[in-house]
Amino acid sequence: MAPPLSSWPWASLGIYKYFLLGPLVWKVAQEWAEQGGAPLGSPWLHLLALFSARGLTYQFWFSYSNMLFLTRRRRVVPDGVDFRQVDHEWDWDNFLVLQTLIGAALVNGPLPLLPGLKDLRVWDPRGLGIALLLHVGFSEPVFYWAHRALHGAPLFGPYHAGHHSTPVTQPLTAGFGTPLEALLLTLTMGVPLAGAFLMGAGSLGLVYVHLLTFDYLRSMGYSNVEVISHRVFEAVPPLRYLIYTPTYLSLHHREKDSNFCLFMPLFDLLGGTLNSKSWELQKEIYKGKNDGVPEFVFLVHVVDIMSSMHVPFVLRSISSVPFENHLILLPFWPVALVYGMLMWCCSKTFLVSFYYLRGRLHQTWSVPRHGFQYFIPAAKAGINRQIELAILRADRMGVKVLSLAALNKNEALNGGGTLFVDKHPDLRVRVVHGNTLTAAVILNEIPSNTKEVFLTGATSKLGRAIALYLCWKKIRVIMLTMSSERFLKIQREAPAEFQQYLVQVTKYQAAQNCKTWLVGKWLSPREQRWAPPGTHFHQFVVPPIIGFRRDCTYGKLAAMRLPKDVQGLGSCEYSMERGVVHACHAGGVVHFLEGWEHHEVGALDVDRIDVVWKAALKHGLTPV
């Protein structure tokens, strides 16, 4: 049996835990109806407003700390947050629910401790002074000694070990803990407020200022990003004992034997538990000690407005699962649209996420353009310029391989990367489109007993390679293309004895008896109707087609699962499952792991399809 206050009573409710706040919502609705308008003086309304504002405070710091394009040089712990930590901290806001319920009990109960709670003044400056004195005189020492006690043998295992099990602190980590830890925080946060009210100096403004400042400092300390310059502490040395830093907190989180204070290191100094490395390490980190150089870069672009919110610095609960059009994102659509337009006007390629594979840093960068912009003729030069600048930046940094994603390697845009390699023949970074592995994944999905396939997008880079590979295997390829010239050019590439296996058609009706469709071009519902029942649609079209046929099956985009020793991966790549990346991303990883010195741009080398496939399997990448 679990010790008391070591687990949350509503743990099994999942997202339905928020219904515990339903009575507060009902109270507000009743008062709204009675007053014929917003009950601005309602304590229930303010409790709900505080719940939201406090949650947004942690979310603000979470978003900021994970905007790697702003914070990467000042990260305290260079490791990434993995899926295990994401799931472990999923219910980080339990303490907010608890404290809101406690607030509701205080408002509704006949307690004489908080006089005037239902008729608060807007502001009383005396209350701020009283709360500050009580925080320093009561909250800080009580938290310090209670925190030290939690690190003792009887209490640490059941009550505090879970909090320390997360390797990288995040603002959301600040809220993750047991009910006992939440009650300790409630005490240290609530006593200064209670004291101000008991002395007749309480106010509504004080409640908001005190609670939000408390949360702001907590989430700042757990942000894993150094935000206070070492020069401030050098200019005013006593200040280092009055306010902690993310480095200070991170040392406690990792070493567990020092830096126990709430916000003020003064109490660690008095208690003899101040870590001597705190200030020098803080200085080194602020100067960029942990700013590593990636050896592999995957260069992506934004797909559309909705998917632009599927990034690690928006909502972790969204980015850590495969992308879908969640209803919760709809209210933020206008914000994402405006942000997208600003990116178009004044942004450059930026860092989105990272992970480590066998000790090597892999990063994902994004070109600040949406998918539809790649089809605007006037935008072509600007997009290529963004890609070129990213390649040159990677070259200066010492990146070994840069892999182009999706439309960044579009044939009509830059010849599958050929434009950049031809323009800069002395590049040290290897530019890779990754399509060789994409082709290999698609080809290895086709059942070995297949005798005939129907291929759309047949004259594209991928379509050409797939057709030539299959005809060499004596598989009949029905190639849908209106261009006889392009078809004949591909057919002539095949040895004479295999050319008969390549057949040109111009209508979908020609495939009405073929149950293996390789889709490299968008298919409408009308076009899909020509497929016979039981057809499987293999896809290499972006975006993937919509499955309209219930009597058919639809494959996902070509992808591979990263090796098991990947570290710090905590976000999903678009619609891919956890730990799965697009085949072109995996192709770049294989290119890097193999140490190949050639660029992989332009037309696919069909002879290398099997070579790349075997290399991928050798390095632990697996088909999905």
Main β sheet profile: 6 strands, mixed
Count the helices. How many? 24
User: Regions with pLDDT < 50 over 5+ consecutive residues?
Assistant: 112-117
Q: Order of strands side by side in the largest beta sheet?
A: 5-4-1-3-2-13
- Give the total of domains: 3
Rg (CA only): 29 Å
What's the overall geometry? elongated
DSSP strand content: 5-15%
As an assembly, this protein is single chain
Alpha-carbon distance between the termini?
40 Å
Mean pLDDT: 94
Helix content: 40-55%
Query: Which class of secondary structure composition applies to the elements?
Result: alpha/beta
Subunit structure: Homodimer.
EC number: 4.1.99.5
Catalytic activity: a long-chain fatty aldehyde + 2 NADPH + O2 + H(+) = a long-chain alkane + formate + 2 NADP(+) + H2O
Protein name: aldehyde oxygenase (deformylating)
Notes on the protein architecture:
With 624 residues, the protein is α/β, with parallel strands linked by helices. It has three domains: 11-287, no CATH class; 296-432 and 582-603, no CATH class; 437-557, NAD(P)-binding Rossmann-like Domain (Rossmann fold, 3-Layer(aba) Sandwich), CATH 3.40.50. Helix content is 44%, strand content 11%. The protein has helices at 22-35, 43-65, 68-71, 83-88, 94-108, 125-150, 153-164, 179-198, 204-221, 230-235, 246-255, 266-271, 278-286, 316-319, 333-346, 380-397, 411-414, 418-423, 435-445, 461-472, 484-493, 525-528, 583-594, 609-618; strands spanning 296-302, 350-357, 360-370, 401-404, 430-432, 452-455, 476-480, 502-505, 516-519, 536-539, 553-557, 559-561, 566-567, 580-582, 622-623. The longest helix is centred in the first third of the chain and has 26 residues, at 125-150.
